[in-house]
Amino acid sequence: MNAAPGSDHYAYFSAGVRCGDLTVTAATADRLIVDFAVSNNGRGARLHEEINLDDRALPIAWSVEGTSLMGAAVHERLSAEGTTQTWSSQAEEGSHTGNRRLYLAADTSPYAHWITLQAALTAGGSVDALPSGQITVELLDQTTLDGDRNPVDIYVLRGVGLTPDYVLADHEGRFVAWLGSGQTLLREDHSDRQRELDALETHLTDLHLEQVQSRILHRYSAPVRIRNVRVFDPRTLTLTASQSVTFHRGRITTVEADATAHAVAGEVVIDGGGGTVLAGLHDMHAHVRPIDGLFYLAAGVTTVRDMGNANDTLMRLLERWDDSVTAGPAVVPSGFIEGRSEHSALLGIIPETLPQALDAVRWYAARDYHQIKIYNSMNPEWVPAMAEEAHRLGLRVVGHIPAFTTPDRMIEAGYDEVTHVNQLMLGWILDDGEDTRTPLRLTALARARDLDLGSEAVQQTVKRMRDGGIGLDTTAVIVERLMLSRARTVLPADAPFLSHMPAGYQRRRKRTYVPSRTEEDLLRYDESFPKVLEVIKLLHDNGIPLWPGTDDSTGFTVHRELELYAEAGLSPAEVLRIATLDCAAHLGLGHNHGAIERGKTASLLLIDGDPLTDISAIRNIRMVVKAGDIYFPEEIYTELGITPFSTAPAIDQEPTR
C-alpha cells in the first residue's frame, strides 16, 4: 500500500510481526480517508473509510466499506444533520437527537483510536459515546523514542473495549502509535522502533495489572473455612449434603459435614449461602495475554492450556501469574510449531527445514512444555519424524490438520489429539486440493448439513481415534460464534452476559463473521451447526476423550463450551467431571487438582445454584480461589468496566491481613 501525497503511512504489527498497513489522507482540513489492510494467519480485514469531523473533533460523517476479519462484507454509515445523528452498522441501526456524541464505529481500523482520543481531549478528558457509554482519556507520561530528543506523550483511553488502549502523540500533536493487547499501529517513520514500543506496552500493562491485583487479591495467613455449601464430587457425579471446606497455605485441609464441623478460633469463616463448591474449571485451548488472567479467574477458570504464543512473552507471563504479581490462572504451555507459507501464523517457532523442526521439538522439551502443537502450514511429510522425536522426549503431539492432508493420516503419523472440532470434520467434507490455510477451514463447515455420520469415512476416523485413545480439543463455542453470529442480533450464547459489557464489545458481538451472498448461505450455517453437536455426542459415546477449549479469552466462553456439551447430550455431571478432574488428569495435574479433597491444591469456585440440575448455574460465580488466593468476581468485573453478575459472599470473621 503506497502512501499518497500529503498522507501518513502506518505499519500494523501483531505479536511483533508486521502484517498490515494503514494510510490516512487529509483530503481537506476536516475530511480524512483511511485505507487499512491486514493479512495474518490466512485472514484479515480490508477497509476503506471516509470521515468528516466537526470543530469539536467529533465525526459527523463516517463511511466504512470492505471486509472484516473472516471476509464478511462491511457497509457502515454515520451522518449528522443539525442535532440528530443517525447510523447504520452490522451491530444496529440507530439515531440520537441532542448534544452531539462520539460515534464508536463497529467495524473500523485502529486509526479510530486517534479519532477517539482527539474527541475526548477536545471535550476536556471525557466524552459521551454512541450508541452508549463514555470514553475517558488521561495523559499518563512522556517518553522519547530511541534517538529522538523530542518527547512523545502517552495517553490511556478507557471505555472503548475490555482493556485500556494506549495512544502516543508527538510534540507537534501528530499521531505516532496505538498500542493494544499485543497489536501495534505505528507511524512509518518510527516503524523500526516497534520492539521499543512493545516493551513500553508491556511496562504500562504491568503497572496497570499490578495496581488491580493490589485491590482484588485477598490472602489470609489464617485458615479459611467455607461453610454451608454442597460439594461436587467428580468421582461419584453427585453433590454432597451441606459441607464445610477449609483451606490453608494453598491446600485443602478439611472437608466435613457442616453439622459436625467446628470452627477454630482465628479462622476466616465465609458463608457459602447454600451454594455449590467445585474444583476450578479448565480452558483447554487458550492463547493467553496479561489481561486475560482477570477474565479467567472471574469465570472460575483456575487452569488453562496455552495452545501457542510468543514464547518469551509466555514464559514471563507465567512467572508473574505463578508468583501472584498479577492475577491469572495456572498455565500448561504447548509448543507452537508452524510451517513457512504466505498464510503462516506468526507465533512460536517457524522452521524452514525438517532438522530445524526437530530442533524446535527439542527446544520445547528442554523448557518443560507439555506438548507440541502443529499448525496449518506445516509440511505433513515432516510430522512422523517430529512426532517420533516428541514422544521420545515425553511430549504429546497435537494440532491442526496441515493443509492438503487428513485427520486419519495425521493420527497415523503420531497425533495424540486433534485440535478443533472443525479441523476433524474437514476431513469428511473437503475435496482434495482445498486449502485450509485460508478461512475455508471455518467456512467449509456450511457443508456439514449434509454430512452422514454413519458413512464409512466418519466411522473409520472414529474407530482410529477410539482404538488409539486419540482425543479432541473441541472449541465448539468459537465454531458456534463464527457460524451463527448475525448482524444486529444477540447470539443466544452471548445473551447471559453481553448486556453487562462495555458498548464497544457488545457491538463487536452483534455482527456476521462468515461471508455470505444470500440468505440461503446463512441458512446452511444455521442448519450445519447442529451437526457439530452430533459429532461431539458421537465421539463421547465411543469413549473418545473430549477437552473443552475456547480459543477465546473472556472466560464466558468456557461456560458456553460446557453448555454445548450438555446440549450435545452429555449429562451436566459428566460435563463437570470433564471440566475438573478429567482435564486435570489429562494435563498431569490430577494428583493435586480436579476435586475438593484433603491435600489437594485449593483451587475452587463457589456458585449459586445446583449445576447438576442446570449446567448454566456455573455462570453464577461468587468467589474463586486459586492456590489459596481468594478473588471475588464482583470486584474483578468492576475493575474491568463490566457490570457484575453476582455479589461476594459474607465473611463472618476477618482477621487482620
UniProtKB/TrEMBL annotation:
<dbReference type="InterPro" id="IPR032466">
    <property type="entry name" value="Metal_Hydrolase"/>
</dbReference>
<dbReference type="InterPro" id="IPR006680">
    <property type="entry name" value="Amidohydro-rel"/>
</dbReference>
<dbReference type="Pfam" id="PF01979">
    <property type="entry name" value="Amidohydro_1"/>
</dbReference>
<dbReference type="InterPro" id="IPR051781">
    <property type="entry name" value="Metallo-dep_Hydrolase"/>
</dbReference>
<protein>
    <recommendedName>
        <fullName>Amidohydrolase-related domain-containing protein</fullName>
    </recommendedName>
</protein>
<dbReference type="GO" id="GO:0016810">
    <property type="term" value="F:hydrolase activity, acting on carbon-nitrogen (but not peptide) bonds"/>
</dbReference>
<feature type="domain" description="Amidohydrolase-related">
    <location>
        <begin position="297"/>
        <end position="630"/>
    </location>
</feature>
<dbReference type="InterPro" id="IPR011059">
    <property type="entry name" value="Metal-dep_hydrolase_composite"/>
</dbReference>
